[in-house]
Amino acid sequence: MPKAGTVALVGRPNAGKSTLLNRLLAEKVAIVSDKPQTTRQRIVGILSGERGQIVFYDTPGLHRPLHRLNRQMVQAAVDALNAADVVCLLHDSSEPLGKGEAYARELVARARCPKVAVLNKIDKVKKSALLPRIAEYAKGEVFAEIVPVSALTGDGCDRLLEVLWDLLPEGAPLYDPELLTIHPERFLAAERIREKVLQETERELPFSTAVVVERWEETPTLTRIHASILVERPGQKKIVVGHQGSKVKAIGTAARLDLEEFLGRRVYLDLHVRVEPRWRESPHLLAELQRGAHAGSPGAEPDDRDSA
Ligand code: GDP
Ligand code: MG
Fold it and tell me: What is the pTM of this model?
């Protein structure tokens, strides 16, 4: 019998959840950066093969939320872990075990499904440092398996997939096996532009930016995309625009190249930076951003609970 089910990837910000999703799918679905809170909502990635289908939920990092946006983000992660057939708790093995990690572990322990501890970034640590970590995660028998991996190099990822297939229930595929994700192209494009904003700017700014695709036109020769980068304050706009527009130009070039690869055609990208005070507290804008992730997607999510 083929297997089918959902696997939630959860953990602290920056543990490498999105990198792992892309690695397991061998395709880039989720955006990645070294800034925390890069992933803002549940991202669905679908792996179909001979053994069946795994529907992965990539999630925002588990942290203590301050803004409305962050509360929505943590809720998305908690919803995903409660809805999944298997939960993977990702841990950055190169970081010390702190309070935040204990908090994440507590949240995961409450889920009723089988749990896997994924000790990520083993390319950055010595084997001798890894063994005590494994012992730590073995305590209390919360986890069915503990799997060390490197999402970056792929080390251990085949073993992780074996473990997941074994834990999943039997069943028919949840989605068309041709699908890699359920999100509309427009949303995935906005995410890729946001990734470039995160990669090109400094630490403080990223939390305050969002990307909205305003217009999307297909011509016979290219795709024209008009998008806005939202910031909260005029000072932030100055940073994103840069000296004589150099920063937004760099963001635009990096994003255009990435989008051309993603869409497989030439792209004309028009980027504007717009000040939208307190957008992170605006229920209207947040709802709009969330809708963008799903509107027009092929096939509704089986157990999507829209918190917006
Ligand atoms: P998320 O917030 O958990 O989704 O983390 P991301 O996937 O966005 O990754 C956060 C940062 O960690 C990025 O800079 C990644 O390149 C890096 N990263 C992720 N996995 C690994 C890994 O296995 N090894 C190393 N060295 N870096 C990693
Ligand atoms: Mg992420």
Answer: 0.92
